């Protein structure tokens, strides 16, 4: 199995023709999507942070926290985010502020742009969501993404899920012997 993985990595122009592939040297050779530009919209801060976190872990792990923060700030542009970015950059350059970890910076970003608004945006998204032409698997994944951060749990979450299902599937589930009690079913 290790030989197959090694051959695949070599064929893709990846790491290590001269030895074993380890997690620490495989990252820089992988293609990782960069985050979309973040303009300060509350409903998008979570996805932006997730994309940045993944990129930092895969590509910029060996860089300093300051370099990681500056890299993330490259993708903070437009809207209310510009003013916030300018303030953060001034504070960093003057030494007024220093982040010990990238996670500390992400917490600051989420606090500034997420706040309570993100939860209400997630709830509104759940309430608008319907299966439409998507497969059930696609709908489940999209619903799970929207549910994260909404604080909806248990029965309330299941009611929103059922409400969003296509009518035919919903009817079949209601007629079944085992009623739906979780999204995982």
Write a structural description.
The two termini are 33 Å apart. About 8% of the residues have low confidence. Helix 3 runs antiparallel to helix 6. With 185 residues, the chain is mostly helical. It is built from ten helices and no strands. It folds into three domains: 31 residues, no CATH class; 81 residues, no CATH class; 59 residues, no CATH class.
Task: Please describe the structure with a list of short key phrases separated by commas or semicolons.
single chain; 185 residues; 10 helices; elongated
SSE topology:
Layout lengths: L1 H10 L11 H4 L18 H15 L5 H10 L4 H16 L7 H12 L1 H14 L7 H12 L6 H11 L2 H9 L10
Structure at a glance:
The protein has 185 residues and is mainly α. It has 10 helices and no strands. It has helices at 2-11, 23-26, 45-59, 65-74, 79-94, 102-113, 115-128, 136-147, 154-164, 167-175.
Number of domains: 3
Overall average pLDDT:
80
Number of E-state strands? 0
End-to-end CA span = 33 Å
User: What kind of sheet is the major sheet?
Assistant: none
Overall structural class, as computed from helix and strand content, comes to: mainly alpha
Radius of gyration: 21 Å
Overall geometry: elongated
Low-confidence segments, given as residue ranges, are 12-25
Strand content: under 5%
Share of helical residues:
55-70%
Order of SSEs: HHHHHHHHHH
Quaternary assembly = single chain
Number of helices: 10
